[in-house]
Specification:
Layout (H helix, E strand, L loop, with lengths): L6 H4 L52 H26 L15 E5 L7 H8 L5 E8 L6 E9 L2 H10 L4 E2 L2 E2 L1 E4 L38 H88 L5 H6 L20 H14 L4 H32 L13 H12 L3 E3 L6 E3 L4
Helix pairs in contact: 8-9
Length: 429
């Protein structure tokens, strides 16, 4: 398509002239050739110095060594300063040390905010004070934390020495001691390597709890009070813990008792339901037995109403119980009630083993045989003695043969009733 463009536009797409070639000014690094190739150091060994003439190597100081050196130098400087100050220290010629040394009390560990008037109020309880000198720094002018109190009487100083040690002033417990610079020979202050006396040697690891006071009962009472307070707090904490444990145990017991009560209620409801079902079942069985007994009574009444049994009873002759006593009327000793009991007994026996059922069946058969024999004998006796009654029970003239026939027929599906000669069904097994 570009061939159809006009010449002025085609000139825009025309290529430029090629770049002219210019030769390089020098050779490239890989094209250069070294006139002197690399060589070893063997030609220069003769220029080295002799190791025997070399100085020994210098060893640099480590950080630990430098710190130890500085500490040692500091100790040495301090010892020199202490020796210099000891030569110049003379407490008896000190212009700041005024008054009687045996009436002066030294008080240390004082709060920096405590004023001279506050110290006076605290220590005037032991006696009248003559002078209080609080020590200040010469460079900054701030208090150094200790002071000297001069009493008017020596006994007041002794009283303060015994009772004021450990007293809390402005939140800090002060340390009380006598002025030992002018009273104890050879004693030095702490800045010169000394201390506050034999009972004030320094920190808690070397210092005893109480100073060598004559009356230490107050400190003992304070310690006992502190110990009692600590024991009381521990006992209260233990009581709180025990109370919390009892509370948790009681909650657990209540929770378990509630669960047991709930379970017991559920079981009682289940037992009551089971009892109700069993009661309904028994009542239904009793109703069923009563219904069956009523039906059996109706059958017995309907079967013997028109026979020969009614005539002797109406005529006042011999009673109609010729047959076995177990099959007479519904009101006899072996009537439907006895049959119902036999059925219940047989139902219970059905759950036993086959051997027990066979044994019970044989026992019942022997019992029925005996009942039949007694009924046959009674029927024959009445037939012999009551011939004028005109009773026809179907067993006259049978004698022993009739008894044998009755006993033989009993072993089958039923037995022959002597009252009317009908074949009666045996009791269900």
């Amino acid at each position: 398509m570009t061939q159809f463009l006009p010449p002025n536009l085609l000139a825009l797409f025309a290529p430029r002239d090629p770049i002219p070639y210019l030769p390089p000014l020098e050779k490239l690094p890989h094209e250069k050739h070294h006139n002197q190739p690399y060589c070893g150091i063997a030609p220069y060994i003769r220029e080295f110095e002799d190791p025997r003439d070399a100085p020994p190597p210098t060893r640099a100081e480590t950080r630990e060594e430098r710190m130890e050196r500085k500490r040692r130098e500091k100790i040495e400087r301090r010892q020199q300063e202490v020796e210099t100050e000891l030569k110049m220290w003379d407490p008896h010629n000190d212009p700041n040390a005024q008054g009687d040394a045996f009436k002066t009390l030294f008080v240390a560990r004082v709060n920096y905010d405590t004023t001279e008037s506050k110290l006076r109020r605290e220590f005037e309880v032991y006696g009248p004070i003559k002078r209080i000198h609080m020590v200040y720094s010469k460079r900054s002018g701030k208090p150094r934390g200790y002071a000297f109190i001069e009493y008017e009487h020596e006994r007041d100083m002794h009283s303060a020495y015994k009772h004021a040690d450990g007293k809390k002033i402005d939140g800090r417990r002060v340390l009380v001691d006598v002025e030992r610079g002018r009273t104890v020979k050879g004693w030095r202050p702490r800045r010169l390597g000394g201390g506050l006396g034999g009972t004030r040697r320094g920190g808690a690891d070397v210092n005893i709890r109480h100073s060598g006071r004559d009356d230490t009962s107050r400190y003992d009472e304070r310690d006992r009070d502190r110990d009692r307070e600590r024991e009381r707090r521990e006992r209260s904490r233990e009581r709180d813990k025990e109370r919390e444990r009892r509370r948790s145990r009681s909650r657990d017991r209540r929770r378990r008792s509630r669960s047991r009560d709930k379970e017991e209620r559920r079981r009682s409801r289940e037992r009551s339901k089971d009892k109700d079902r069993e009661r309904k079942r028994r009542s239904s069985r009793s109703r069923e037995r009563a219904r069956r007994e009523r039906e059996r009574k109706e059958e017995l009444r309907g079967g013997g109403g028109g026979g020969d049994m009614a005539e002797p009873s109406e005529a006042g002759d011999a009673p109609p119980d010729d047959g076995p006593p177990g099959e007479l009327g519904p009101d006899g000793p072996d009537g439907p009630e006895e049959k119902g009991r036999d059925r219940d007994r047989e139902r219970r026996r059905s759950h036993r083993s086959e051997r027990e059922r066979r044994r019970d069946r044989d026992r019942d058969r022997d019992r029925e045989h005996k009942r039949g024999e007694r009924g046959g004998e009674r029927g024959r006796d009445e037939a012999r003695g009551g011939g004028g009654g005109g009773q026809d029970n179907g067993l006259e003239g049978l004698g022993n043969d009739g008894r044998d026939m009755y006993m033989e027929s009993e072993g089958g599906d039923g037995y022959l009733a002597p009252e009317n000669g009908y074949l009666m069904e045996a009791a269900p097994e």
